[in-house]
Every structure is written in structure tokens, then in C-alpha cells.
Amino acid sequence: MNRRKKEKHDLSIKKDSRTPPYQPLGEYDGVQLVWHHVVPYNKLAAFWNDLIKDPARIAEVKRMADRMATRLPDYRTTLTARDREHLVALLSNLPTYEHDAKELIPGEGGSWDNFTLIYGTPPGNAFVGPEATHRSDDPKENFESGCELIITKDRFNRLKALDTNIDTYLRSHSKNDAITVLRGLETDTIDKYEIPQFKANQWDRVGGKFSIKKKKDDGRQLPGPERKKIRVRGNIDLEIEF
Questions:
Q1: What pLDDT does 235 receive?
Q2: 222: pLDDT confidence band, cut at 50, 70 and 90?
Q3: What's the pLDDT band for 76 if we cut at 50, 70, 90?
Q4: What's the distance, Cα to Cα, between the start and end of the chain in Å?
Q5: Are 163 and 43 in contact (CB under 8 A)?
Q6: What domain of life does the UniProt record list for this protein's source (predicted)?
């Protein structure tokens, strides 16, 4: 039985972040609002570009591609009906392709660009804030370690684990580590599509620069090991702490 020969395409993702096809954000107090990544864009691109080197690994993207196709209507994109149709068709075929940098990109119309833009800035890995030039705490190409207040503790912990798992895969290049990352992408970036919007009360502004507010200390203090208590019993109980 002859197996169908795989189509070869250039499946690489360029390591330069561009604006995803989401609804425009506008400004706040004269400052442009943009999408910020939690796990850095270039790290997501590095994972993908390493993954596609092995033809056997490309098939493993099926679950992630299916999840994106299912969630696409929830993303509130600016894509036309035809654009969405082309993107869904690409996602269906993506696991069957083989990477060859000398070939053309796959898909009709702008479907490949739309895929890479959404993969590079998936809704579950994004939040809205002032553009980087107006931030004093922008992490550049590092994990956004101060954004727990904005994205919630649960999502922060999940994305931190994903960031760590990508680092692990980029060292090991193992199939099991690749699948771990892909499952994290499915559930924690593609599936969690609510993008936290900009809230001014979550940001500080000093000298025209914004920074995410630090988590507040609730004021509780546990006794240190040097703190001791003695109790003297008599007609009344007396407790002394020193």
C-alpha cells in the first residue's frame, strides 16, 4: 500500500512580533495600548521552529490546531468570513505537512500569517497594557514575571510552567517534552481566550512611565523562630512573649 507523499512547505515562524488580528485597543491618557505576552513571543517561535525540524513531530500539533479552530469564533478577531474559512482549512491540514524552508508557505490567502500571529499571541498568553516604550517594567524577551495581579494567580502559575517546559524542551529536544509543551499550549494559551483588558487601577505611573502594581502585603507576620512564649499559672493565666 502506497502512502500519500506529504506536502512540503516552509512552516517556520519569523522571530518578530507583529499585531495579531484582534479588535483595535485604542489609547489610555494619550498612550497606545497593546497586547503584551506572558511567555515571550520569541520563545514560542523558537519552540515551533525547533519542533518542525522533525517530520514525525509535526503530526503532534493536531490537537492544538483542532483546539484553535474550535475556539476561533470566541477570539473576536477582525478576520473576514473567508479569512476564517481559509484559516480553519489550514489548521485541518497543518499536521499533515512537512517542513522545507525552500518551499512556499501553506494555505490560501493570508491564512499562514493569521495562524502565526494567533499562535504567537494566543489569547490565553496575552494581556492589554501600555506599549513598551511607556513602561518602566517591560521585560522585553523575558517572562512577564510581574503580571500575576492582572492575569490571576492560576493563569500565572500555568504560564510559568509552560515557559519552564519550553526551556526544558529546547535543551532536550525530546518527543515527550515536546508533547508536554503542546498540551500546555492547547489548554493554557489557545483554550483560555479571555484577554485581560487594561485597568488603570492595576498600574502605577511615575514620570510618564507605567508599571504593574506590586502585590500588596496583607500585613500578617508569622512569629520568627526567635519569638518565645512562657505561661505562668496562678490565680490568673499570664502569657509573656519575648
A1: 56
A2: very low
A3: confident
A4: 84
A5: yes
A6: Bacteria
What H or E segment, with its residue span, contains residue 167? helix 153-172
Give the closest residue to 135 by CA, choosing from 44, 17, 223, 36. 36
- For residues 172 and 174, what is the distance between their CA atoms, to the nearest angstrom? 5
Residue written as cell 474559512? 85
Q: Is residue 12 pLDDT above 70, yes or no?
A: yes
Lowest mean pLDDT among 159-168, 200-209, 216-225: 216-225
Find all residues with CB under 8 Å of 71, minimum gap 6, and list them: 190, 191, 193
Determine contact, residues 136/206, Cβ cutoff 8 Å: yes
CA distances to 44, 64, 146, 169, 212 from 166, in Å: 8, 15, 19, 5, 25
| Contact yes or no for 125/189 (Cβ under 8 A) | yes
Q: Are 215 and 229 in contact (CB under 8 A)?
A: no
- Please, are residues 33 and 131 in contact by the beta-carbon 8 Å criterion? yes
Summarize the chain as % helix, strand, coil (round to 5).
45, 15, 40
Which residue from 113, 83, 89 is spatially nearest to 11, judged by alpha carbons?
113
Q: How far is residue 189 from each of residues 62, 66, 176, 235, measured CA to CA in Å?
A: 15, 13, 19, 65
Give the tens place of pLDDT for each residue, 24-45. 899 999 999 999 999 999 999 9
- Local confidence band at 194 (pLDDT 50, 70, 90 cut-offs): confident
Instruction: Classify burial at 235, counting beta carbons within 10 Å of its beta carbon; exposed 0-12, middle 13-18, buried 19 or more.
Output: exposed
